[in-house]
Amino acid sequence: MKHFTKLVRPYIIWAVVIILLPLLLIVLYSVTTGGNDLVNIQFTLDNFRRMTEPVYLAVFAKSFRLGLTAVGICLFAGYILAYFITFFSERTQSLLILLVTIPMWINTLLRTYAWICLLSDNGAVNTLLQMLGFQPVTMMYTDFAVLIGLVSDLLPFMVLPIHTSLCKIDHSLHEAAMDLGANKVQTFWRVTFKLSLPGVLNGIIMTFLLSISTFVIPKLLGGGQYMLIGNLIENQFISVGDWNFGSAISVILAFIILLAITGMKQFDQEEGEEE
Amino acid sequence: MSNVLIELKSLTKNFEDQQVLKGIDLNIHENEFVTLLGPSGCGKTTTLRIIAGFEEPSGGEVLFDGVDISKVPPYKREINTVFQKYALFPFLNVYENVAFGLKIKKMDKSLIDHKVKKTLKLVGLEGFDKRDVTRLSGGQQQRVAIARALVNEPKVLLLDEPLGALDAKLRKEMQGELKKIQKEVGITFIFVTHDQEEALSMSDTVVVMHEGIIQQVGTPEDIYNEPENRFVASFIGESNIIEACMLKDMLVSFDGYEFKCVDKGFKENECVEVVIRPEDIDIVRPKEAQIKGTVKSIVFKGVHHEIVVETEHRDYTIHTTDYYEPGLKVGLTFGPDDIHVMYRMDWE
Ligand SMILES: Nc1ncnc2c1ncn2[C@@H]1O[C@H](COP(=O)(O)OP(=O)(O)O)[C@@H](O)[C@H]1O
Ligand SMILES: [Mg+2]
Predict the structure, then answer these.
(1) Is ligand 1 within 6 A of the CB of residue B208?
(2) Are residues B118 and B155 located together in one domain of the fold?
(3) What is the mean pLDDT of residues A42-52?
(4) Per-residue pLDDT band at B245 (split at 50, 70, 90)
(5) The domain boundary residue, chosen from B207, B230, B253
(6) Which of A89, A174, A179 to mutate to test the interface with B (most CBs of B within 10 A)?
(7) Total structural domains in chain B?
(8) What is the pTM of this model?
């Protein structure tokens, strides 16, 4: 065994270089001024103080609202999808899951451009509407467009963990519930849903994580003025060039996500213990 | 015997193109301990699942108290099941597992509490209320499963090889306990096992099944002493099964000799099979017996020796507490009531 633990070392070194080091740098940037000028380094908390300005708080609020909405829609649609997939034979199930994951193989940019084609003022959807005699609707550069983009992007991340946990449920537990007098609906809520909670939780965490830090989708479907946390950070690094403030926002975002995940895990454990 | 509670009438079940049950007719009475006994794959579980409502029969009827329940969903039947692998809810503790059915019925909380406590006591799990079911031993999980079913006060309890996962000692213990519980609650138990000893020691009635057909229904004594055919005779304990000819009532011939027996009602010169239990054969000196042979092997089985004697026509298996040297010339005798004549089976 000793031999093998040594084999892990290169990996650990790599992990430090490519994960830990950048993280530490970001933390360092967030509490200093002067950008890349690491010689005349000066520590400050101003970067964080700036975050409390209403403009930025509004961006945070909007991001969370949109992110949570996307997670909510994903949960609802994803659960139903995952649930019905489990009714098929094993082979069909693998095929259906493959279909769900196929979009993940295509670059987000491409997929988002596809949505632009569909949603723009003279795109496919509006053409269809007009052909059916309806007024065209503006969809591009609205919350709606961003939500559609987000949900379609994130749905697989909700469906996969839920489907996995649904598949793991021993079918005899359903039969036991029915045997004890539970009808189909009662069996679903008292047994199936309970046992799928770990998958639900993982799905929520993953989709929330991805939706809160997205910047490509809001930029393309929401337009240049559309500002979520991801865009704010991107702007600070790319256009404004204020790496220190950008880092501070990243740190705060990371902190909030960490807090949210810990909270959820806690909830999961309590659920497990109390039941 | 008391009233018939469940009636299976020419029950059949097909899975795809395989016929798993080929016409099961069976009456199960109130307060009866019935065991479905047969080798793996003979359709015991399928029969039980049809009674529970998890499978629909392909043909025939299931009557419960005289009413056809073939189409009634499981949650509306006054029947509960102890599943083969217990199927306890892992997210509920012992108390909540047992209370599951009562909570579904929206029973009063204090009444639930009373019943759950009473049932836990019945199965010997007093004070286990708050335990995590996933951390219990196999035997304890078993008891929870029984309590969870019994607390609903069903008219019938179905048990599918409930003792299969337990070790030999615990198995014996639970056998006695199950029988005791059944007497105490006074309801019908339908028990499934492939272990003939278990079936014989626990049941009021044993139903021997083979390839989707009932071979024999009877008390354990009937099944053991008067097997109806070769399958039952060989499945229930060791036996010597011999092709024979029924010369006339109470006279049968095999191995070139004629023997007096106690069976009648066969046609003259009908081809039959004879079963002689190994413990019913006596070993004597060669000149005292008609059938003569040589001791081929002797194996000590704990209480008795299992001896194989090679004769002109066949090998006989004999159980005796005495020791005989291999190679020894011996004679074999048995009395008229040790010979049991059966109809010859048409298949195999
Ligand atoms: N759901 C099913 N689909 C197809 N075949 C089945 C199914 N359930 C049982 N069988 C088949 O039916 C036969 C009887 O099974 P079962 O009733 O479980 O036997 P036992 O409980 O006596 O071992 C077996 O050959 C088994 O493979
Ligand atoms: Mg079985």
Answers:
(1) no
(2) yes
(3) 88
(4) very high
(5) B230
(6) A179
(7) 2
(8) 0.83
